[in-house]
Amino acid sequence: MAIYELTLPLQDADVEKLAVGDAVYLYGTLCTARDMAHLQMRERVESGKQLPEQMKGGAIFHAGPVMIKDAENNCNYT
């Protein structure tokens, strides 16, 4: 397992070096989205439309109802 510290927006080379199990720390502006936002993005791409330019090289944190907060107010997967 490798550990990477990456700054958003990412370049293709940043992503291509990652492997399953690597730890990745992201720095920069991160988008959050729930289920409907993911659906709208998918529909947009499938219909041949581009995503907004500010999303290029970015990362999306799924912040939907499958998340819980612990005692320190951190999000954790259920």
What is this structure's SSE topology?
Layout: E1 3-7, H1 12-16, E2 23-27, E3 31-33, H2 35-46, E4 60-62, E5 67-69, E6 75-77
Parallel strand pairs: 1-2, 3-4
Antiparallel strand pairs: 5-6
Summary tags:
alpha/beta, fumarase, Fe-S_hydroAse_TtdB_cat_sf, two-stranded parallel ribbon, 2 helices, Fe-S_hydro-lyase_TtdB-typ_cat, 78 residues, EC 4.2.1.32, globular, 22% helix, L(+)-tartrate dehydratase activity
Describe the structure.
- The protein has one domain (3-77): Fe-S hydro-lyase, tartrate dehydratase beta-type, catalytic domain (fumarase, Alpha-Beta Barrel), CATH 3.20.130.10.
- The protein contains two helices and six strands.
- The chain has helices at residues 12-16, 35-46, and strands at residues 3-7, 23-27, 31-33, 60-62, 67-69, 75-77.
- The strands form three sheets. The chain has a two-stranded parallel sheet with strand order 1-2.
- A hairpin with a 5-residue loop joins strand 5 (67-69) and strand 6 (75-77).
- The radius of gyration is 15 Å and the shape is globular.
